[in-house]
Structures are given as structure tokens and as C-alpha cells.
């Protein structure tokens, strides 16, 4: 038992989920009850990191209670300041310190549910997060604190642009919780939020609980697997595809009424908070709000939309229109292939996945089973490290002997290559094991800050579930996993290089329209021959990297965005306009965006579109938005010279360092020397055809 206890205590953890990770609260926490136990631990100290590793279940719960108690104390102190005596030192500074100092402690409570093998610890972590979330939610509704912060902002006594931005964000957070409303309206707001949450979860439950199935005769399934030129067999194959597509597209029909009610409630909530519709509310604090230039003329039927709605709609319309020529060429190729295989049967939307896959296999001659042989995990990681170190002027150094939560976990320190300054740390926990979170992601363990001349360095964790070497067989990565790993490592670099003065603007707590841009930019290095050869090597002889032809094929691999744009437009319109006929709207958009291909009769796409029900409501556009700006940066600064360290360090200083302390569009414009453009993105898609 004692051995098992010590083994658990030698684990190391981390996490970033829930409101606890978003609104960290409290300051100057002392572990008086735990000091003796902590001193007895045998570990190598990690200078500058306040992340607590290998806490027991009881320690996690005690820590959570201390966090809540200390946070309440700080909020009470701020609330007690007379409104005519508010200053930066007695109102803003305590809350700034609060976030910086307690964020790593909150993460120390929350992370075990992602990585611990102990069910008791995972349960304690979940409970701790629940307690902290409840407290944070309560703090965001404290009218006494709101009045004090509001009084400070009214004075206009800004010490810096960062202080102004921080104070304004606090006020906006309070007002989004209705603290500027009457008590009656505030109660209505809470009722609306509860109803919205319930309907969102019902929509997802309906999808998860759907167990509809489709029956086929043996022959119908056999012909789907055959590659025959027989027109009869091909017709049957096409008929089967259509049957599957129709049946799949009409599941959960009850969700249509759920979504309609959900949209009505969202619009009502937005109006209560002073917005014209829910899309305006959702976009108000995003990068899209400030981007209004170089947009097309609008259709007359949406001229009554708000400015924010129009920005995103125009953006999507312009991207869709710019891709029409290349998409038409793609569709012509697919139609001709179907004509040769199936005769004069009209091409339908149900044929798209099948013939896209077929044309990829024929034109690019890529066997992804073979491609995988060139990406052993260790080689890929070392290549990614080299790319990031060389490009951004960094040096990574493993911290040998650091306390970790599993023997597979490694901790690295990050130094500025020129000055030798310690910039931060990152853990990598990438190998599969039971009880661990199942997806690749980056979590902030400690956000950077610079308060009263004291620097707090950032700490991040890269987590994944990859297969390690077993019995001499190397762990190999699919190409998609390589891209994903480099993408996530972009978040690590962004987190470490962030030099924002306040923790609220540090880490990955940035504008969602902006935070993905650096990682999507770094993905481009997966499609350039010289960088691909750095991260590849045949697993039996790693001196033999992936060849040039394979590189070219990977770079030209088709990825049509038209369907994604279709769903983004649908999401934007239903959240910008009330009383929309959803099926009618989808039919109209489908024919327009998908180059005349009609929506399949009998299907209900709105009933099985979870992104607009929860998580991405009115913001489905964000991924394309980020891709467009990443393409612009790559084309202007790195194309033709992907290892240009001057450009890389300039990007680090101008784009990564400010974090959320500056307006994202201002950051990009300053780096590019002009307004961002969609042209590079459009050109990149045209060249892949």
C-alpha cells in the first residue's frame, strides 16, 4: 500500500477545462497544512513553476477549498473599497494578481482527471473542479465587485492600455451576466441560460441515442465493394450510396424543433443583453468584429443585419465565390469519372465522398499505409523540435530528474537562443495508457505574467494517445497525426512565447478567431519538402526520408471547403435572423454554394449539425477565418524560405508575444505591414486542383 502511495505521488499532472480554467480566482495561497508532506517529497525543483504535481485525492479537495476561501477573501476586500476611493492598487491589481497566482493551483486540482490512472483521484479532480466552477460562477455575478470595477473604469485613470483592456473585459464579463440589468431581467437571463443549456444537451443526447439502422441485401453490399465497369452493378452501387446518405441525413428529425426553439431562446437572450441578435452577441468580443474592409456588396434581403453579422457573412460569401472556379473544375472531374463508371446517371451530393476518394487514389497515387512507415514518433518529435527551435530562435532542454506523473512523461525548459533567458516549460505526455484523456491537445498549466516587475513564466502540457514502440516495433504516425502533432506544438510555442503582462491575456486564453492562426500556420511545414524530410525517415533506415514525389502528392491532397462554407453560412444566418425556415434555407444555400447540386430530398441537415447546437453556435466560421490569415502570413513571410529565422523571430515578437493584450487585427496588420488578405488562401486552393 505504501509503495502504491509513493508511486502515485511521483506522478505529475495538468489540465485546462471548465470555467475554472477560464476565470481563475484568488491570491497568495499558503499550504500550511501540507507543508510537512510536501517537504518530504523527493523531487527536482522546477524554478518558476507553481504547478502542484501528484496530489492525492484528499489533497486535491483541500486545495480546492483553500482556493475558494482565499478567492472569496480577495473579492470581499475589493468589494469593500468606497466608490470614491477606487484606484488601480486597490481594485484592479488584486484581481490581476489573483488570476496569475491561482491559475496554476486551480489547474493542479483540475488536471488529474485527464491523466491519472487512479479512479479516486479522477473523481476528486472532477469534484474539485465543480466546487471551483461554482465559486467562479458566483464571483462573476457579484454586484458589489461590479460596482467597484465600474467606478474605476468611469474614472478613466488608465496606467496603460493593458490595464484599460483588463478593466473593460471585467466589466463586460459582469454585464454579460446581467449585472447592468434590473433584478427581474437578471432572473429572466438566468432562466434563459438554463433553458438553452437544457435544449443544447437534449439535441446532443438525441444524436447520441439514435440507433437507427439500414438493412441491405448481401448483393447490395457486395457490389459496393466491387470495382466493376458493369453499368448494372454501378447503378446498384450508386443507389446504395444514396440510400445510406438519405437515411443518415434524416436521423433525429425531432432535433429540428429542438434547434428552432434553441435559436429563439438565444435571440431572446441576446436582445435582453442589448444585442440585435445572437450572432452579434457571439461575435462581439472576437476578431471578426473589427474586420470590415475589402468586402463585397450585400444581397438586399440582409441589409437590415447588424454590422457584426455582415462582416462574417461577407467573409464567407467572398471565400465561397473565390473558390467557385477551382471547385467547378473539381466537380467536372468528379462528374466525368462517374459518367465513365456509371453512365449518364446524374451526379448527386451523395456521390461526392465516394468519387473524391477515388480521384485522390488515382491522381495522387498515395498509399497512406506506406506513408506511415516514414513517420516514427521519436523522429517526428525531434524534427518538430528542430523546426521550432531554428525558426523561432529557441532552445529546448530536457529537465532530467523532474517529478512527473508517469515514466513516459518528459519535461522541457525553453530558453531564448540569443540571450539564454528561461522562457518557460512544457511537459509532453503523448503515449497511450488507460484512464488518460483520449485526444491530442495542449493545456495551460501556468500562464505567463509580468506584475510589479515580477515575471511568472508559462508552463504548458502537450497530451496525446499515441502508440509507443513495442517489442522492437517502432511507434508509427499516420500523416494526419503528424499534422495534428505539429499543429498542437504550435500552441505550445505560442503559449511559451506569449509575453502579455496579465495572465488573462496570456496562455491560450485568447480570441478564438486568433488563437488557431499560429498553429494553422505551422501546419504548412508539413507540406514543404525540406521540412517534411526533417521529420521523416523510413523506420528501418531513418537516413532515408520521404521522397519528393510523395511530398508533392501530400501537398496537392484535395480538401474542398465548399461543404464547410455551406454549414458556416447556415449557422450564421439562423443566428442572425429570426423565424427562419431551416430546411428551406438549407435547400437554398445548398444549391447556391454546392454549384447547383441539390440537397438530398428527405434529409434534415439541421437535425444532425451538433456544432450549431453547442460549442460553435454562430461561430462555425472561425476555423476558415483562421486558415485564411495563416495562409496570408505564410505566403508573404515564409513561402520560398521556410527556415527564415529573421521572419520567424519577427513573428514570435510581433504575433506570439502580445497575446491578448492587443487587438488581433492590429497585431496581424503590424506584422504584415498591411491589412490581411484572402488572396493567398484562394490561390493555395486553386493550385491544389
Can you walk through the features of this model?
- The protein has 689 residues and is of the alpha+beta class.
- Helices cover 56% and strands 6% of the residues.
- It has 31 helices and seven strands.
- The protein has helices at residues 2-9, 18-22, 35-39, 57-79, 88-110, 112-115, 119-139, 143-155, 161-176, 183-209, 218-225, 231-249, 255-272, 278-283, 307-322, 324-342, 352-364, 368-372, 377-392, 479-497, 512-515, 517-523, 529-534, 548-555, 562-574, 582-593, 610-613, 622-638, 645-656, 664-672, 679-687; strands spanning 394-398, 410-416, 422-431, 441-446, 449-451, 454-456, 459-466.
- It has a five-stranded mixed beta sheet with strand order 1-2-3-7-4, with helices on both faces.
- Strand 5 (449-451) and strand 6 (454-456) form a beta hairpin.
- The radius of gyration is 27 Å and the shape is globular.
